[in-house]
């Protein structure tokens, strides 16, 4: 039997480092694209707002997930699971709806989506393990 709490905590820990690298690369590539490429009216502002919103939401999601997993508070993990949906939507926007997408962004966004999906699965397993009655053998 897999300890879903431990696995979820390890995934959140890994994601805290990966997201720091992801956000740094995305902001750097966004700055590079803003300087060197032409954008239609308002698209650069929209893409920047999506990226900054994603950074804020993902930071909140990681904080809630780590705190909820460590203290076995299910409500924080549930909130983290619900915040995963707009975070994944932001990554999908960066992956498919941007005006200009670099190959590195495809790789980084695909890895981020895979990590979020894996965290979602283990967060669900962790929540189910919190709901069952303890057995004393």
UniProtKB/TrEMBL annotation:
UniProt entry tagged with the keyword tRNA processing: no
One GO CC annotation: membrane
Q: How does it sit in the membrane?
A: Multi-pass membrane protein
Q: Does the keyword Isomerase apply?
A: no
Q: Which InterPro entries does the record cross-reference, listed alphabetically?
A: Uncharacterised_TM-17
Q: Where in the cell is it found?
A: Membrane
- Protein name as annotated: Transmembrane protein 216
Q: Which organism is it from?
A: Chironomus riparius
| Transmembrane residue ranges | 12-32, 74-96, 108-130
Per UniProt, which keywords does this protein have?
Membrane, Transmembrane, Transmembrane helix
Which BP terms does GO give this entry?
Answer: non-motile cilium assembly
């Amino acid at each position: 039997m897999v300890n879903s709490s431990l696995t979820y905590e390890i995934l959140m820990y890994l994601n805290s480092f990966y997201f720091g690298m992801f956000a740094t690369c995305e902001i750097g590539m966004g700055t590079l694209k803003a300087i060197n490429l032409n954008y239609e009216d308002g698209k650069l502002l929209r893409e920047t707002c999506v990226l900054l919103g994603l950074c804020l939401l993902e930071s909140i999601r990681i904080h809630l997930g780590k705190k909820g997993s460590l203290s076995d508070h299910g409500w924080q993990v549930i909130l983290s699971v619900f915040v995963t949906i707009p975070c994944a939507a932001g990554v999908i926007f960066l992956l498919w709806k941007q005006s200009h997408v670099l190959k590195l962004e495809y790789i980084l966004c695909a890895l981020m989506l895979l990590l979020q999906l894996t965290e979602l699965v283990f967060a669900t397993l962790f929540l189910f393990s919190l709901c069952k009655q303890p057995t004393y053998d």
